[in-house]
Here is the input.
Amino acid sequence: MQLIDYMILENTKIAREVYRLTLEAPPGVRQELPVPGQFVNLQIDGCYLRRPISVCDWSERRLTLIYKAVGTGTEKLAAYSPGETLNVLGGLGNGYTIIREARHPVLIGGGVGVPPLYGLARELVRAGQQPLAILGFNTADEVFYETEFAALCRTVVTTADGSHGEKGFVTDALKNVGFVYDSLYTCGPEPMLRAVYDQAAPLPPGRAQFSFERRMACGFGACMVCSCRTAEGYKRVCKDGPVLTREEILW
Ligand code: FES
Here is the structure.
């Protein structure tokens, strides 16, 4: 874990209610580089609790976060401007484990579950793998990062109303695309995770990884607010997760 006051470089709306926040660490401060799927906890002025946001992308001094402005905290966050600072508790959570021996991973994201898969896709491509990304949204005005993913790997976008990309859900695309995958990484709302879980092809243990969203308070394992029952007993989504393997999950 690391606590840093970052400077905001950009806080821009990129889709309906969705913003991209780019942060830069102060000169001389070395940030720990995140593992794909990890998150940070932001201190927002006027909010008692920090807000957890997954990391989309990073470089040596920068972090890119994508969030949806849907509640008091994230709406306040959307009002921050470049040049202001944000106190960030970083390096949180247990991210995705890259399956080194796999070659054809499928990445399935829904809504604000899409961002952590971007950094993951980049790392998988760097590892010589050829991912397929399936990104699901409700409507065309919610779509973001299609071109960024397409620059990295084969990408399929779905919208529930058919206003952009393929009409339907990510599970429809998974069925229709005929991609033979040897590992699976997913992040999104729980009903989507459940549908992917039910439909995914059998894979060796550990090769299907699901990232969960939960209400959080501390974000680092101290308060138990985020605990959930798993096949291996109770786990804290913030510290033992947010990524769980298919074998660990109990619905
Ligand atoms: Fe406190 Fe997870 S949020 S233990």
Summary: The pocket of FE2/S2 (inorganic) cluster is lined by residues 216-219, 221-226, 236, 238 (CB under 6 Å). The radius of gyration is 17 Å.
